[in-house]
User: What shape does this take?
Amino acid sequence: MLLGDALLVGPVDDNGWDTSVPADYQTLLFDTSGRLRVELVDAERGRRWQPVDHLWSDPFTAYADGLQMAQAWPRASVQLLLA
Assistant: This one.
């Protein structure tokens, strides 16, 4: 959860330096016109699914709701997709 001012950085490069936040993350977090879907991913089984047919406008609420849904599938991770 982000509260107040925050500095977002991307993954480190081969030399250990921070990189920029990837463009798709920037769009997801800051493009307020976007609608989002929650997707659950089970990497072990190569399975992806959307547990509910619902659109969110706030990425933080979408992710929090996705974490609640993922409790039923312990191996699943949560991803947000632009709808």
